[in-house]
Write a structure and sequence with these properties.
Structural class: alpha+beta
Radius of gyration: 14 Å
Strand content: 5-15%
Low-confidence stretches: none
Mean pLDDT: 81
Number of strands: 2
Largest sheet: 2 strands, antiparallel
Length: 81
């Protein structure tokens, strides 16, 4: 999904409470990574999963050259589709 979050009807989305008062999120990467979009995606994915959302609900995702999901600044600036 591209474009601003407000365009997706997030106000009407099913709200979910956090399962606990707090949580420490940790990610493990197989090799050194310099692509900030990959690191951002992994962290955001953990938060979404903690709240019970599926990975396909994460906005601004694109696939990199290897077909791996990343958070993409290009997706954030595209017009809503």
């Amino acid at each position: 999904m591209s474009g601003p979050l407000t365009g997706w009807g997030w106000a009407a989305a099913t709200l979910k409470k956090a399962p606990q008062k707090d949580h420490t999120f940790r990610i493990s990467l197989d090799k050194p990574v310099t692509h900030t979009g990959l690191i951002a995606y992994e962290l955001v994915r953990e938060v979404y999963r903690w709240f019970g959302f599926e990975d396909d609900r994460i906005p601004y995702v694109a696939l990199n050259e290897a077909g791996v999901p990343i958070l993409s600044p290009d997706e954030m600036t595209k017009p809503m589709t």
